[in-house]
């Protein structure tokens, strides 16, 4: 089938990351024909760098404006149009669909959520005045939701390799032999500097792998002259360059603890099987707090009470001294959660469920 994916980037990397991972899953694993129309091609192309050229060749990446001039012959109208995260289709593109002899199915692909109510709306029709069939598709952890975007599976990806990616060789040589590794990718609102200062008092050595832009974010949050950062000697900051999606997956797999944000890195942190903090995208109406609580209800459903308290404290940015004593139990829980995810997504997860739903 032919698929057109429309992606308007709100959260910089996250939205593009989901759309790109979905596109490569549909093409490489399910033999679909995919175009992406994106309003931020530089970000999308950065995430797509380093991918097998054969996989990338199968995906037709176009600027958002190119959708206004549909180059396909009318008989090649897409079978499926995806409005990623509820973005509106360009008017001229929609007008082209209305006069096409064959109407596609439009999928409103929503954000991932663990909230129970999504199962009641997943797969339901959304009647439109123009008459083209449109449906809600809710990614989720529940078996009766849209699933998770698990491709490529960790067993098939760079994440299993012990070989350091070329782009990270220089930075990885800075790691100390007996230190714990923590990757950091969070929003500006996090109390990261204070968090690192507290971490440095725990009596262990930590190497902090900062994603692209995090060092500048830290410096900006510093109240010291010339934006200097002063941390205990047990803390070493290592700032890495912008890396491709697969290389970032590898970083998550190589760290002992991960701080992530957005939807794509949130799922990949769980698939890495390590403890993590999800810095969920903050919303003015505080809806993010409800979403975080819903996920923690699922994530900690079988956990002992002490671990529940520790993880909830960590996820809400309590200082490490308040919860780090539970890290061993959290590691075991992360491995068990990862195994359970793999079992529940054995059907192929989001991409496979989308193909089956459309068929």
UniProtKB/TrEMBL annotation:
Keywords from the UniProt entry: Elongation factor, Glycosyltransferase, Protein biosynthesis, Transferase
Catalyzed reactions per annotation: dTDP-beta-L-rhamnose + L-arginyl-[protein] = N(omega)-(alpha-L-rhamnosyl)-L-arginyl-[protein] + dTDP + H(+)
Superkingdom of the source species: Bacteria
Signal peptide residue numbers: none
Pfam families in alphabetical order: EarP (PF10093)
GO molecular function: protein-arginine rhamnosyltransferase activity; translation elongation factor activity
Coiled coil: none
Function recorded in the entry: Protein-arginine rhamnosyltransferase that catalyzes the transfer of a single rhamnose to elongation factor P (EF-P) on 'Lys-32', a modification required for EF-P-dependent rescue of polyproline stalled ribosomes.
Family: Belongs to the glycosyltransferase 104 family.
Name by which UniProt lists this protein: Protein-arginine rhamnosyltransferase
């Amino acid at each position: 089938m032919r698929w057109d994916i429309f992606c308007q980037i709100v959260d910089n990397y996250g939205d593009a990351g989901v759309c790109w991972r979905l596109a490569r899953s549909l093409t490489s694993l399910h033999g679909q024909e995919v175009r992406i129309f994106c309003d931020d091609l530089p970000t999308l192309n950065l995430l797509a760098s380093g991918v097998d050229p054969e996989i990338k060749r199968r995906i037709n990446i176009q600027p958002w404006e190119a959708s206004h001039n549909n180059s396909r012959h009318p008989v090649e109208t897409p079978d499926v149009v995806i409005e990623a995260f509820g973005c509106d289709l360009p008017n001229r593109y929609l007008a082209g669909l209305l006069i096409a002899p064959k109407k596609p199915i439009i999928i409103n692909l929503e954000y991932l959520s663990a909230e129970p109510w999504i199962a009641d709306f997943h797969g339901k029709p959304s009647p439109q005045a123009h008459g083209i069939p449109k449906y809600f598709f809710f990614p989720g952890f529940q078996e009766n939701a849209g699933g998770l975007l698990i491709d490529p599976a960790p067993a098939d990806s760079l994440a299993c390799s012990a070989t350091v990616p070329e782009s990270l060789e220089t930075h990885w040589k800075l790691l100390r032999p007996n230190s714990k590794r923590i990757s950091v990718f969070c929003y500006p609102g996090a109390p990261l500097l204070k968090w690192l200062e507290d971490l440095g008092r725990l009596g262990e050595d930590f190497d902090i792998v900062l994603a692209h832009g995090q060092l500048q974010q830290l410096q900006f949050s510093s109240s010291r002259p010339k934006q200097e950062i002063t941390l205990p000697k047990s803390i070493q900051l290592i700032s890495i360059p912008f890396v491709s999606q697969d290389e970032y997956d590898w970083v998550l797999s190589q760290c002992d603890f991960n701080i992530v944000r957005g939807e794509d890195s949130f799922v990949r942190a769980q698939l890495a099987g390590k403890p993590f903090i999800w810095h969920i995208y903050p919303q003015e109406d505080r809806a993010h707090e409800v979403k975080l609580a819903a996920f923690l209800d699922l994530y900690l459903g079988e956990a002992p009470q002490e671990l529940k308290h520790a993880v909830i404290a960590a996820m809400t940015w309590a200082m490490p001294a308040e919860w780090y004593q539970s890290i061993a139990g959290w590691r075991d829980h992360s491995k068990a959660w990862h195994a359970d995810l793999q079992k529940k997504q054995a059907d192929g997860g989001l991409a496979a469920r989308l193909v089956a739903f459309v068929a």
